[in-house]
Amino acid sequence: MTTGQPPSGGTATPGPAPAIRIEGLHKRFGSQPVLRGVDLEIAPGELMVIIGRSGGGKSVLLRHLLGLVRPDAGRILMDGRDLTALRGRELDRVRERFGVVFQGGALFDSLTVFQNVLFPIKEKSRLRMSAILPRVQEALTQVGLADMGHKFPAEISGGMRKRVAIARALVTEPHVVFLDEPTTGLDPILVNSIHHLIVELHRKFNFTAVMVSHEIPEIFRIATRVAMLHDGRIREVGTPARIEGSEDPAVKQFIQGEVETQAT
Amino acid sequence: MIGALFVDPVERLGRATLGCVTALGRFGVFFAQALFWLVIPPFKLEQTLHRISFIGFRSLSVILLTGAFTGMVLGLQGVILLRRVGSEAFVGAAVAVSLVRELGPVVSALMVTGRAGSALAAEIGVMRITEQIDALTVMALNPMRYLVVPTIVAGVVAMPLLGAIFDVVGIYGGYLVAVQLFGLSGGTYFGQIQSFLTTTDIWVGFWKSLAFGVIITWVACYKGFYVGHGAEGVGRATTEAVVLASVLILVLDYFLGSVLP
User: Fold this and answer.
1) What residues of chain B lie within 8 A of the CB of A103, using their CB?
2) Is B20 domain-assigned?
3) CA atoms of B235 and B215, how far apart (whole Å)
4) What SS3 class is residue A228?
5) Of A121, A124, A148, which is closest to residue A136 (Cα–Cα)?
6) At a CB cut-off of 8 Å and minimum separation 6, what does A138 contact?
7) How far is B28 from chain A (nearest CA, A)?
8) Which of A60, A62, A65, A100 to substitute to test the interface with B, most B CBs within 10 Å?
């Protein structure tokens, strides 16, 4: 797969031209403010992990980036275009460059595993089926499910469903991949296995990735940078080492709290 | 305090009215969007055929069963009533005209609402809460085109066919009772149908079935699309879809019955 993006260079800091720039994003639901001015830049080819407390607005932020929710104020710039101002076909044209792994996988339960991975490429690509089918099989092989194509999502385990979702997200060779808590509900071995898979695919295809996760400290081993969303704003953003060693009380408390919770 | 006593109910009434008008507007816009995507290629033939099979073919058994018994009841009541005035020869015509103009389209539509309408609302509702509709959206694949348009087209295709099957089975159900049970002449039964049943009656039944096909699928898709949260939300959407579609079918039946010849 080719992405057209420059290489990330492992744990490099972001370059001067961000792939995604979020400026002053505000969103409230009724009287409840969820985002109170989020500012964040995501560099091309980096794996940005957004952490924060449950119900803190991480998934809402991700839904803004996907164009599923409109902000009350603020902008999301992707390659210089304001995503929040786009509608219809223009927005679809931007989305064609996305790959998305939803929290529950969001696999089509009436389709088999193979048909799920085939679906986006069959619908969007002008390639012939003879060219598409090997790509689908290759995507399934990459996530270790080469012989599971005939099964329905209900017949496979939670970990396998996440892998299928990753294969479906990557089969169209996206430039930007969004992952919404891809390891929620999995045991520690599967968490590591999914993280390993994400890192491996990220290195191989060099896409820009934005991942929302709770898995601390595991995500510090895979992220290029980590951003902490707290109280509707980005509290701190930096390399995993910087976030782990942060002196900010909110960041420190969150990280230690998560570690303590997982230790017990 | 006294002011609040008067203002609160008015405020609540206003809010309820606004909510009702908003929901009606959304309901209308939803259909307008479906009509828009109906004429924009590419057309999703595979999904449409799948929906026709789901709404039409898989409703066949219930349509055959209810059609037969509706015709049998009509035959039974027709013989009992018409015998009082010495006109039981007309029972075939009474059964056929009642079925083709009225009971065929309405009862078959109510049966399809219960079987397919509820299942469609639940299916689309589950797709919404499990983010499958969001997945379609972010794949730049319009859910209206992939889910709603094929379903409404399938309703338009399947309902008149199901209505026609219901009519035919019902007429034979009436025949079973009137001719086989009460000893009426088979020739008289079908002869009177031939004399009294007109092409206009068949067209009236056809247009009604067509309209009900739109209503069932429109309501089911809408309720599934705007489902609430969790399993409870899906359950409520399913119930609301069945109730709303059934009420709209009966209301529309009256108005179509008034307007059509």
Assistant:
1) 131
2) no
3) 20
4) strand
5) A121
6) none
7) 20
8) A100
pTM over 0.90: no
Within a domain: A144: yes
Per the domain annotation, does A169 fall within a domain? yes
What is the bridge-based pairing of β-strands A208-212 and A176-180? parallel
Print the domain residue range for A94. Answer: 45-69+88-255
In this prediction the ipTM stands at: 0.85
Residue B1 confidence class, pLDDT cut points 50, 70, 90: low
| A138-169 per-position pLDDT tens digit | 889 888 888 999 999 999 988 889 889 999 99
B229 CA: distance to closest CA in chain A (Å): 15
A110: which 2 tokens?
Answer: 């009436």
| pLDDT tens digits, B176-201 | 999 999 999 999 999 999 999 999 99
Q: Chain B contact for A123, CB < 8 A?
A: yes
CA-to-CA dists, residue B20 to A38, A137, B223, B226, B233, angstroms: 35, 50, 15, 15, 19
List the domain range (segments joined by +) for residue B127. 65-259
**Measured between CB atoms, does A70 come within 8 Å of chain B?**
no
CB contact under 8 A, A102 and B131: yes
- For residue B42, what is the nearest residue in chain A, using CA coordinates? A123
The answer to whether the beta carbons of residues A93 and B140 sit under 8 Å apart is: yes
